[in-house]
Amino acid sequence: MTAQGLRLEKITKTFGDFKALDGVDLTIAPASIHAILGENGAGKTTLMNILYGLYQPDGGRILLDGVPQRIASPRRAMDLGIGIIHQHLMLVETLTVVENVVLGLPGQGMRLSLDEHARRLATLADSFGFDVDPHQEVWKLPMGMRQRVEILKVLYRDARLIILDEPTSVLAPNEVEGFLQGLRRLRAAGKTVIFISHKLDEVAAVADRVTVLRRGAVSADLPIEGATPREMARMMVGRDVVLTTLEKASLKSDTVLVRARDLKARVTRGNQALKGVSFDIRAGEILGVAGVDGNGQAELAEVLTGLRPAEGGSVELAGEDITCTGVYERRHRLGISFVPEDRHGTGLVLDFPVYQNAMIRDFRESSFSSGPMLRTANAKAVTEDWVRRYDVRLQSVDQPIRFLSGGNQQKLIFAREVECRPRLLVIMQPCKGLDVGAIEAVHRTVLAERERGTAILYISTELEHILSVCDRVAVMCAGRITGIISPEEATAERVGALLGGLAEAEVA
Amino acid sequence: MLRAIQYIYVLRPVWAVLAALLVGAGLIAVAGVNPWDAYGALFGGAFLDYYGLASTLAKMSPILLAGLAVIVPLRVGLLNIGAEGQIYMGGLFSSMAALLLPEMSPYLQVPLCVLAGAVGGGFWGMIPGYLKAYRGVNEVIITILLNFIAINLVSYVAGGPMMQEGAPYPYSEEIREGLWLPYIMPQTDAHLGVLAGIVLCLAAWFVFRFTTVGFGLGMIGKNPTAATYAGIRVRRNVVAVMFVAGAIGGLAGTFEVLGLKHRLYHLFSPGYGFDGIVVAFLAQLSPLMAPIAAFFLSGLKVGGLIMQRAVGLESTVVEAIQGLVIIFVAVSLAFRFDRGNWRRFLERRRLLDAGLAQGVTNNSGGTS
Amino acid sequence: MSLLGDMSAWVDFFSTVLRLSIPIVFAALGGVLSERAGVFNVSLEGCILGGAFGAATGAYLTGTPVGGLLVGLLAAAAIGCILAGLAVSLGINQLVTGIAINILVLGLTSYLARLILGADATSTLPGFSPMAIPVLSSIPVIGPVLFNQDPLAYLMYLAVPLSFWFLYRTPWGLIVRAIGDYPIAADTVGVSVPAVRALCVIASCMLGGLGGCYLVLCQVFVFTENMSAGKGWIALAAVILGRWNPALVFAACIFFAFSEALQLRLQFNNPDVPYQLFSMVPFLASFVALVVFAGRVRPPGAIGIKYVRGGK
Hints:
heterotrimer; B: 368 residues; mainly alpha; 16 helices; 0% strand; globular; C: 312 residues; ABC transporter involved in vitamin B12 uptake, BtuC; 2 strands
């Protein structure tokens, strides 16, 4: 009975020249909840993909109950009793719950006996206190329920070791507590749970032990009793995290530039995503929008920029009703700029060279064209000027933008969206996947724009960013704004309370 | 070294064509004919002989225009398999304009015929464009079905309402000589259509390369989401591009009728629309390369017949070779420098470039 | 007397509908299979033609219809391997690949047919003859229409419920449906997406080839150039119209066969009207049906998109 549980020794993994994991040691006790903390890009997901057989480690070994194992494929991982719940749920939405659970289940023979599986599944679900209808189609279920289906999927395959990758990022705040309860029940049933997160309060609430990863290496490994959230945050980032509000002048003007009233919109599939959203933004003000992903923020940005029609309500810009105007008019006549969330899919044409990406929004304007003719030479000169002023690192503006790093791509997008001197700037998740330096550059640009008197809507799920740059914070939940907090009250505690799921005290 | 690799890489379609010809040589050898002789007769006849060259140019007119009718929408991300039907509609409308309108000055009527052909084809191309943009119906299947409808429609018209009295098989009255397109090589069939095709190719190249309209269309082709974000009305553009593509296909039919056949025959296009697809892939969607590809392909077809006469080999082998060519080219285009290779390659260059070597931010492996 | 005459006319008409539907049904079932797995099989047209050519060659060389059937299926499987290799393994655009294959098969079969069948191209090949099923074939109207057919027709009767059963009642069918909709979900439970897709494509092409075999071995007994004549495209339209469900697709195929039989009947009854006006009917019917119904259906989510593990 020695060496029970899972042991990783000196695991190393490189992608090209990038060391994702650098000699990671990890011991996970059976029937415990083990949290793995780390910033974006710290190597958490890479580590888990290695455990699940999606990647092979370049060095080191994996021991399961004291026996070295080579996990060559997900199938092998499943045979070993390892199950993973991915951050993005791996469910086929058009299939029913039980169909998703039995999908690819070995040893089924020729007949698909759904009813029998459904019965067994219901029993299993009951034993963990999960209330799931096996014959319901997945797309009809709320996110929290879908996640339970994912967990049932791995339990149904007799997984003993369950890995959850950022499981709460898709949940609504009110679903989180139920989810954490579920984890405790799994532990009580003798399952080992690896819980990957960067949310400190959740880790503090549920884990037995915590390992902190930083830049591909273990920076701390300790029982939860010995760790305060503030300490964990310091180990995660490698320096003291202080909630700083960036230096900024007070508002110059009281003119309300943007007035949104009772906005309603639907997602493409038909669910109502915005259920009556109202707010004002003054000139030179940054209104932050905080909230868990998928609570209507994307739709709000699209409605403001004209990409999605509003079903009800109105938007005014400087007193003019712009609810029914199109994308082009909003961009060019009204001066609404947009930094979209999906850089690669929406904000850029990856196959185009850098200078063409600089002109995709304004190619019909005089700096890029005269009449029907493009002014390529001029476009390149303009781009080179931006590249200098916004510190975009590249070889040449003729290079396809695909080969720039995320931070440099984002800087170019910001240059493009800001250089046209907008009146309203909508920014969505601008720091996703960026390193610290690039994040700082982005925030500097945003503050400079504020100084110029632009109304700014800053949407992000990163509370820390929102609190450090915004003048007021609106919190969104389930298509509504649950509260707008003025600068003085925008403490972490208040926002946390509005989000509903976060703990009152320590928010790093 | 790198330069050389680059050239080899860029010329992939040429290697693919050579490989296809090699496999084709195998097919010829199976029939017991010396492939060397066969290819000699084929290419010598098609390109080196005055009359052969003229036939090649005459065939090139519809093939080149059909190729352009595939290239233009494909650069916007739409696969137009309907050039064949658009050719037929162009031929139908232009011959109706030539035969049914009251006789007038050729200077007026020829442009009218051309316009009618272009509008007919354009209308035929606009149908799948509209259905794709506003109803989400797959344009490939719709264009194919429309091909069959157009072919049968022309057969009906040529064998019914417009059929010449006592004709042995469906064709219309002859179009009067005043409306024929001028010939470009004396005493041959080579007519003005091929020059018009080349001019249109140049125009398409110019539009895509130098104008805002072309820039916007290219953006739709590369990333329609970004195009929407950039304020381009994607649906409207899709319909417009399919109209233009159809009009180009219609011109192919128009020139075929006014330049070569001088009547509306049933089944007058032996699949030129599909040859257009081959041209588009051979030319890698470049309007500048399209004339070269079309020249090669029409030479292959004309040469096939000459070869049949010279060495007694079935000219259908040319169709098989054409199929091989397109498969091989498709495969060759699938081989790409993958991004990882590129990045490592650029990284190495970056190291050489001392000024830029510092501060390279890396967020590859962007996890979680 | 006139009642009896009418009856035999109806029997005639419905037999025609059935015979015309068989190649389309086989091809359309193939289309359902591959599209459910997320691969557009545009080369069905080529598969029918390839299957027909294989059947003709096999029957000519072996002198038996069974030999023809085997060679026909083999030819179609070869086409399937090419499509799977190009579209699934190399990830080349599925539409482009399919069209390229159609062009290749058209050229290759025309050439090889002259080479192999040569002068005998117009002489009748050995084929399957109708086999009346004892009791059932004596039912009035239905009997002669349904139960006095050749073996491939009976095979089609089986193929429709069989493919329905496969897709909805077996674990493999579940995997196929999952892969067509959200392949990464299947990948994470240990199913090899490329392998399943390749198998589906090959099976799909063989079904298309079966349609070609039927044309040669049960209907016309000769091979002619481009004898598929757009049937593959009609089958693809039927797949969309039948919403990727074998039972509905079968109904759509019957609809197209009905319109084809109708146009033949119209041609026959109106010799003074040029027949081309009527030959348009099936294509026009597909077109109209697609335009009217297709806008509202939801195709398999991942159709036409190559699958690469890890996204981009």
